[in-house]
Amino acid sequence: MSDSVRILVVDDSSVSRAKLRLAVVALGHQAVEARDGSEALQLLGQHPYDAILLDIVMPGLDGFDVLEAMRRDDILAEIPVIVVSALDDDMSSVVRAIELGATDFLPKDFDPVILRARLETSIRKRRLRERERAYLDQVEELNRAAQIILDDEFSPDRMNVDDVAARDDALGTLARVLARMADEIYDREVALRRQVITLKGILMVIALGVIWGVVPTLSHIAADLDATPVGLAIWVNLLAGLMCLAVALSRKRLSLPGRGSLRFLLAWAVLGGVFQNVTIYWIAGHVEATTLALVSALEGFMVFALAAMFGVEKATLRRLVGLVVGLVGVVTVLLSRGSLASSTEVHWVALALLVPFLFAVEDLGLSTVERDELDPVNSVGFMMLFSVPMMMPLALATDGFLQVGPTFGQTELVVVLMGAASASATIILVLLIAMAGAVFAAQSAYAVTIAGIVWSMLILGESMSVTAWSAVGIMFLGLYLVEPEAGEETIQIRMPFKRSPRVSG
Questions:
Q1: Each residue's pLDDT tens digit, 24-53
Q2: Taking the model in full, what pTM does it have?
Q3: Residues 25, 26, 30, CA angle at the centre, nearest 5°?
Q4: Contacts of 103 (CB under 8 A, 6+ apart)
């Protein structure tokens, strides 16, 4: 028996207590004395005990009162109690004590051998019950873990069978098998979710490229129609905002932004609604739509550069080489097209670099700010509308208002198309960043570039040489070098659970 056995001796007689204490100590156990029932219950509430030697007849709270109190407490009821009585004169009291939960009895004039046998028997039975209860509890844990595996909302963290798996018996083997099965199911589910998210992400990237890729072409057409950049941005944002809020209203998701979301939406309106759109529409009047689409490809590289600068992504030599290769590809395309033939053209192409930079800042901002209070369609709608009054002073100062209507002509058609493209593309961007992160979403810049080139060829009749197309291939090589290395998550899997530590064995 363990040396840590702790016995509580309860007797109002100091002589009897001393006799019992010495006998218990002689057996190699610890003995604590209590003079009456009240002191015994107080000590039981302070420290754990392996057994109690309890006198029945005591002043105040007697042995029966102590047994009654212990029976009402689930923890104390598990402690074996050996009542001490004068066997010949008090047999009825012993019977009553056993009915109240006592496990055995000991005569006042006891033999140390009898005391040893009854103490060890009582403590051994208690420890056997504890082991049986622990075993049954662990069996129940395995049953619960098995049911979790069968549930649709499976989670290794919810299984919590590590303690059971540490056993070296059949139960431990079963727990290790279940834990390994849980990890395998987790791996399959993560892989499946990654495939689904990757496929959805690719489709969203393509959709974003096709929709936003037409904006440079439409902006160029608007510039040819003498639409001022600020006036065009006001009408496009107003129309896009109203479209988004109408959709949100039809889906019953329209809600006013809270204080935290309001600050975010106002900042986003300044960056995305004002600076981005005005810059694009302004530059589109001075460079070819194809050139603007090609420069937009730098968004992906700028996102990686900014992410590495601020510690969001790890900067490596491979990524640095990728950035350089991508930049070489863009410059090669521009040179092959004669876009850098004069200082004026160089000036406008340099200004066009603001477009991918502003989009890169927007991507990172959207990936780091909580937007749970608003639906994506709702948030884009309010952002667009908030940007409209911000541009009014600039339109007044530059006489940049754009007259539309009352008849529906070319200008009105371009505004409607640009409003629809701006609204839908921004919504897709928000959803894509929320699902896959800014780094993955930035790859849409390449889809925008390809789509922009195709739109400009189809609508404006612009063209690209074989050399230019080869340079586009160099740009995609740069993208391959810049993207996350093996072992890093390209897609941020939004799992409802995390992996539990693997159990060896």
A1: 999 889 999 999 999 999 999 888 899 999
A2: 0.58
A3: 20
A4: 80, 81, 82, 122, 125
Whose structure tokens read 């950035």? 323
286 is written with which tokens? 């001075």
**Over the stretch 421-466, which tens digit does the pLDDT of each residue have?**
999 998 988 888 877 777 677 777 777 877 888 888 888 887 777 7
- Residues 376-431 have pLDDT tens digits of 888 899 999 999 999 999 999 888 888 887 888 898 999 999 999 999 998 988 88
Rounded Cα distance between 417 and 279, Å, is 18
Residues 466, 283 contacting (CB under 8 angstroms): no
H or E element at residue 318 = helix 317-336
Taking the C-alpha atoms of residue 383 and residue 269, their distance in angstroms, rounded to an integer, is 5
pLDDT for residue 488: 39
Give the type of residue at 410.
Q
Query: Cis peptide leading into 80, omega within 30 of 0?
Result: no
Concatenated DSSP letters for 163-178? HHHT-SSHHHHHHHHH
Assign 195 to helix, strand or coil: helix
Nearby residues of 335 by Cβ (< 8 Å), 6 or more positions away: none
Question: Cα(192)–Cα(186) distance, rounded to whole angstroms?
Answer: 10
Name the residue among 165, 285, 183, 187 with its Cα closest to residue 232. 285
Q: Considering only CA atoms, which of 131, 132, 84, 127 is closest in space to residue 109?
A: 84
Q: Which of 334, 326, 255, 260 is nearest to 291 (CA)?
A: 334
Residue 54's nearest CA partner among 92, 2, 101 is 101
